[in-house]
Amino acid sequence: MASTDKPDRESIKSEEAPAAHPRRSNYSSVHVALRFLLFAASVTAVVVMVTAKQTEIVPVPGLPISVPLEAKFSDSPAFLYFISALSVAGLYGILTTLAAISIVLKPAYATRFLLHFALLDVLMLGIVASATGAAGGVAYVGLKGNSHVRWGKVCNVYDKFCQHVGSSIAVALFASVLLVLLTMLSVFSIYRKIPK
Amino acid sequence: MASTDKPDRESIKSEEAPAAHPRRSNYSSVHVALRFLLFAASVTAVVVMVTAKQTEIVPVPGLPISVPLEAKFSDSPAFLYFISALSVAGLYGILTTLAAISIVLKPAYATRFLLHFALLDVLMLGIVASATGAAGGVAYVGLKGNSHVRWGKVCNVYDKFCQHVGSSIAVALFASVLLVLLTMLSVFSIYRKIPK
């Protein structure tokens, strides 16, 4: 049924806006590029966070001995949430890259795809932004400590661990910005299809 | 210039989709309601967080004395970010409520308004979701502590403070969900204006 009303829509569009086709093709390429970038950023953030491990000799409070203690991402529930969210974003990134490529090759269903892209992008943005916020909030406490509640700094001892965590959060922030741009691009692409 | 090509668009739409007008009016009412709800939720979250203050007598570590110590939202940078973000969301909520009401009264510019709503909603979602995540991450450490880095629990002492913080974060999460719904609604409203 969709294939029968498609020629009508295409003919209406070509009558009303003859310049729409080449421009839409440009948007699609940007879509593919941004979505692949989202995939790459999410995977990078996950890998950098997972490889954040550091063992240091730290003194035991109240005793005159020191023991080796390992800092790893799984010590904090916020970092676990971060990894889950960014893994989902990576999977979403590669799947929608393939979908965006399919639009470039076969533009007939572009509008419907764009709608679903926009709706799903918004959901993913909520998940990735909150995960970045949660990891960032906890990492900031690790960096600066909080004297009011006697939470000590961690990053003066586990410097490499904190570098990994910080880089991972920065890349995730970039992924969030990409998702904002992708949603805006999808919305704008849909908006442009309304005949003026 | 916008007013000259507006009658054309209206006439095209009424020929192609005679049932579009009453339905769009329904969407606008939902828009107004959801945006007012966003304003109310944001203001509630800010007020509940700002009023989260509790003074308790706590022992000083290493000394045989106890002193009164006040827990307040400004002790944590994550909570300050939370309050800034939700205040902006509240302001945005009331401004866009007024804009959505203006659309109900004068639907001529509805499409352009919807585009700007969708683009701005996405930005606000990123800000509110990350703020909720940051406050939630820090509050979770306060609730459960983290034995790996010797961050003690706070909520067993400052119970009322934590109740306020928890409620505020729950309301902010609701505001984030509202923003997701609002963006989806704007996108879908724009999509529906494409002639089938």
Draw up the topology in text.
The structure is a homodimer of 196-residue chains.
Chain A lengths: L1 H15 L3 H31 L2 E7 L6 E7 L4 H29 L4 H35 L14 H34 L4
Antiparallel strand pairs in A: 1-2
Quick rundown:
2 copies of one chain form a homodimer. Chain A has 196 residues and is mainly alpha-helical.
Characterise this structure:
Two copies of one chain form a homodimer. Chain A has helices at 2-16, 20-50, 77-105, 110-144, 159-192, and strands at residues 53-59, 66-72. Chain A has 196 residues and is mainly alpha-helical. Chain A has a domain at 72-158 and 168-192. A two-stranded antiparallel sheet of chain A has the order 1-2. In chain A, α2 packs antiparallel against α5 (159-192) and α3 (77-105) runs antiparallel to α4. At the A-B interface, α1, α4 and α5 of A face α1, α4 and α5 of B. Chains A, B: Keywords: Cell membrane, Membrane, Transmembrane, Transmembrane helix. Chains A, B: Residues 1-18 have a biased composition (Basic and acidic residues). Chains A, B: This is CASP-like protein.
